[in-house]
Amino acid sequence: VARYAVCLDKRDLDGLVALFVPDVQVGRDTTGRRALHDSFATQLATVGVTILNTGTHQIDLGGPGAENLATGHVYCKAEIQDGDRWIH
């Protein structure tokens, strides 16, 4: 989660999409990191500075029969520049 926030704030889209599985679902009909990269680029094109602060991470690893499963919760406080105003 921290890497996601740092990559997004730095606009490191290559680093950001590397956090996802290679066949990530992007929208209804598209898959892959290249498509995700393009989607992020489009979405962030009109967004100013972002400051994502993450904390209070809770990660639960799967038990017997679910060794490859992890679930969790995290808090994120975002500050986003939108033209002359800041969204908090």
UniProtKB/TrEMBL annotation:
The lineage of its organism: unclassified sequences, metagenomes, ecological metagenomes. Residues 1-81 form the SnoaL-like domain. It holds the Pfam family SnoaL_4. This is SnoaL-like domain-containing protein. InterPro entries: NTF2-like_dom_sf, SnoaL-like.
